[in-house]
């Protein structure tokens, strides 16, 4: 198994339905898991190419039972115990050897209490968790942070050549919005894992918003540098710091 081709930063061609709220699960359940070198976040699309026989078995079982599977970040030396459930959205291609290309989407976060290795693929007992509800005194701060985040996301989208619909962003609840911000490629895998594990919507939204703002400013500066260097008058370089 391996992740599919890298997706655009805002997944321009993917409907925003993929960021909808997934079905809520409660209690402890046992699910098959994919250890991957990527971090899956709620509402984040996950293209996969399945070629190992054990994972072909696992995916076919998930399809037959309409059951999610779990994605856990494999660091190269260990498998972390906080991950995200993935629901298969569609099977794009099937191959004669049993392999397939599919598109899944992240739904709910979970923590692992126990692994099981009695099947060809790994399974785990997991418990779903969500963000802690904001304290009443923080509700206004969270609303303000959401508006700042949307503003920075719009700026970032324009800087990388994409258009986004502010109406759609305004209709997302704050937890969904915070994860949408976190799915952009400006974050390292380790940073995404930390954002996945966070139980504070406000902290996640503020960290993502700051990072988007910084990235946007850097891209605008790079654009200015390229524009200046393309001019014949080298004295224009002095404009860079004015």
Give a description of the structure:
With 242 residues, this protein is α+β, with helices and mostly antiparallel strands. The chain contains six helices and seven strands. It has a five-stranded mixed barrel with strand order 2-4-5-6-7. Helix 2 runs parallel beside helix 4 (174-182) and helix 4 packs across helix 6 (201-229). The longest helix is centred in the last third of the chain and has 29 residues, at 201-229. 29% of the residues are buried. Residues 4-24 and 237-242 have low confidence and may be disordered. Residues 28-216 form the Lon N-terminal domain. This is Lon N-terminal domain-containing protein. InterPro entries: Lon_prtase_N, Lon_prtase_N_sf, PUA-like_sf. It comes from Alkalispirochaeta americana.
